[in-house]
Write a structure and sequence with these properties.
The complex is a heterodimer. Chain A is mainly alpha-helical. Chain A contains 17 helices and no strands. The chains are: A mainly alpha, B mainly alpha. Chain A: Belongs to the binding-protein-dependent transport system permease family.
Chain lengths: 309, 302
């Protein structure tokens, strides 16, 4: 009876509340105009890069490519995919992404699982040791020298091992594992499973959405690798794609003169800007493809809860 | 006591095995480089390595303090970081509040999806996009020429470098930063808004009385973190965008250390001293910011 009374009592109020919600006034108009303007600001630069990469020298020198597509010339792309320098860089990045992400997942998930448990000796010390590294580090030079002493100069693993664990992602995993019911584990332990088996057979299968999210974030991070390439690779053949893109953007002439097929560029009338933009598009494309899947997770707030640690 | 500890450890032996990769990573790649800060007090000789190189007291620091380029980088770093806190920090909050005012859920998601994307691309790619936009024959200058204005040099103009840095970082990160606030707003009980509406509270009043108090804590924590990285200034962004023409306004400590060591052959000891000075300052700032925010009655970091 009480509930019925309450709902009938509420009824006259709710339509007016809804009405107020739906009314589209000047404030809404302004808000939407701002947000639409920001949307254009976000998308237009990408759109323009895409147009540039499909343009040709004539169009670029006439400067007519910035708004509407006038040409569809794939010569920049066919050049990239036939030039060994770019193919090598692409393979390096592929290695860094695949091997790097695998190592990331292995190290992060095992460590996070252990640290999500309370009451084993040493947990607190390890945890504070990890948190401390978020706020203090030795700086660039000691890091560089340490990697050098470990023999990681001109070694592909320098783009993988020093970034094996992202502390922030690890803390996200720890707080996720903490939310899992303890009962699952206890029953498996009674059946004689050890911690490694529990993680592998019980915990990971039920954590797949979180594992998928972390995988995507790590994969994008590794795909975006350029800094350790710039810092540690003196052999230009070992540069990842984005380090080569950086070279191309800042040091175009030198990169091309080091490529034996430079003549092709001059003969086919490939405009430097087209080439740069095409490499840029190739670097962004995989992220565009993964983005919808990532977006699904972080919009739900999976990545948020950990901000307070 | 010892036997029970031994038993505890034995009982958890598989946990320790699982922890090995983590320990290995943090010891080798985080703590081993930390011992290298000893170089700040040494004269580095390649042959003798970090441990055996001779001590030279505070000589490295004295050398740093005497370099005018260091002080230029020092003040640039602080000015850029303060600018980021003053401009980029509120931008994220304002965007979150704007998105929150959109009534239709699908549209809200769409806006969020678009604004967040640039967060996932690297500064190398963003710099490429910006060169395409801002170079002498870039899109913006083409538009200027079309409208009959003079062409401008954007990327080599020291007066424009900082505004470009702030704007481009807002372009790249504002959507991502706004998500944190939107999540906090999403946690607000909708009945609070209903009640406020019934009482005739305007949109702005609701914002002030309900929305803002609920995100203030999050803002406080992010502010602490931002203050704690004042001496960083955003290396990846500036390293990919700056050039010799804008050192006067754009060279920060990190880019200065990189350039002086790897391009100009400054000694490793001196560069390490700069790095250590920076790290200690950051740590002190983080600690003070945490203290102040707590004094103001918000939750701190620890």
């Amino acid at each position: 009876m009480d509930t019925i009374k309450q709902t009938t009592k509420m009824e006259p109020l709710s339509p007016s509340v809804k009405k107020q919600k739906k009314k589209f006034n000047v404030a809404d108009l302004i808000i939407h105009l701002i947000l639409i303007f920001l949307t254009v600001c976000t998308i237009f630069p990408f759109y323009n890069v895409l147009l540039m990469s499909f343009s040709n020298s004539v169009a670029i020198s006439k400067q007519v490519v910035y708004l509407i597509p006038t040409t569809f010339d794939i010569s920049a792309y066919s050049y990239i995919f036939n030039e060994p320098r770019f193919l090598k860089a692409f393979l390096v990045t592929l290695f860094v992404t695949v091997v790097g992400t695998s190592i990331n997942l292995f190290a992060t998930l095992t460590g996070a699982y252990v640290l999500s448990k309370n009451g084993f000796p040493g947990r607190k010390i390890v945890m504070s040791g990890i948190i401390f590294t978020m706020f203090f580090n030795g700086g660039l030079i000691p890091f560089y020298l340490t990697m050098k002493n470990l023999g990681l100069i001109n070694n592909l693993f320098v783009m993988v091992l020093p970034v094996a664990i992202n502390t922030f992602y690890m803390i996200i995993c720890i707080s996720f594992f903490r939310t899992l019911p303890a009962g699952l584990e206890e029953s498996a332990k009674i059946d004689g499973a050890n911690d490694i088996q529990v993680l592998y057979k019980i915990i990971l299968p039920i954590s797949m959405p979180m594992v998928a999210t972390i995988t995507l974030f790590y994969a994008v991070d590794r795909w975006n690798e350029w800094w350790h390439g710039v810092l540690f690779m003196t052999d230009i053949n070992l540069l990842p794609l984005q380090a080569l893109l950086r070279e191309l953007l800042t040091n175009y002439q030198q990169v091309l003169s080091s490529i034996s097929t430079n003549i092709i560029v001059q003969n086919t009338g490939l405009h430097p800007e087209m080439l740069k933009m095409a490499v840029l598009v190739v670097s962004v494309l995989p992220i565009v493809c993964l983005y919808p899947f990532m977006q699904k997770y972080f919009a739900k707030g999976v990545m948020i809860g950990s901000i307070k640690g | 006591m010892r036997t029970t500890l031994g038993k505890e450890i034995y009982k958890n032996k598989y946990l320790y095995i699982l922890l090995l990769p983590t320990l290995f990573y943090f010891v080798i790649f985080q703590y081993l480089p930390m011992y290298g800060v000893l170089l700040a007090f040494k004269e580095y000789h390649i042959r003798e390595g970090i441990l055996n190189s001779p001590w030279n007291g505070l000589k490295n620091f004295q050398e740093v303090v005497g370099q005018s380029d260091f002080w230029r980088a020092f003040w640039n770093t602080i000015i850029i970081s303060v600018g980021r806190i003053a401009l980029e920090f509120p931008a994220a909050i304002i965007l979150a509040l704007l998105i929150n005012e959109v009534a239709r859920q699908k549209l809200k998601r769409l806006y969020q999806t678009v604004y967040t994307f640039p967060h996932f691309i690297s500064w190398v790619i963003v710099s490429g996009i910006m060169f395409n936009f801002l170079s002498n024959d870039g899109v913006l200058n083409q538009i200027f020429a079309f409208l009959g204005y003079e062409k401008m040099t954007f990327l080599t103009n020291p007066d424009l470098f900082r505004p470009i840095i702030f704007l481009s970082n807002i372009w790249k990160e504002v959507g991502w930063s706004a998500i944190i606030y939107l999540a906090a707003i999403a946690g607000i009980n909708p009945e609070l808004y209903e009640a406020a509406r019934v009482d005739g509270a305007s949109r702005f009043q609701q914002l002030r009385a309900i929305t803002w108090p609920s995100i203030r804590g999050t803002a406080g924590i992010l502010l602490i973190l931002a203050v704690g990285s004042t001496m960083n200034g955003g290396f990846e962004q500036i390293f990919n965008l700056y050039n010799a023409a804008v050192y006067s306004t754009g060279d920060i400590i990190d880019t200065y250390v990189y350039r002086s060591t790897f391009a100009e052959g400054s000694s490793f000891g001196v560069s390490t001293a700069v790095g250590l000075f920076k790290a200690i300052l950051n740590f002190a700032l983080l600690y003070s910011a945490n203290y102040i925010v707590k004094k103001l009655g918000e939750d701190g970091l620890v």
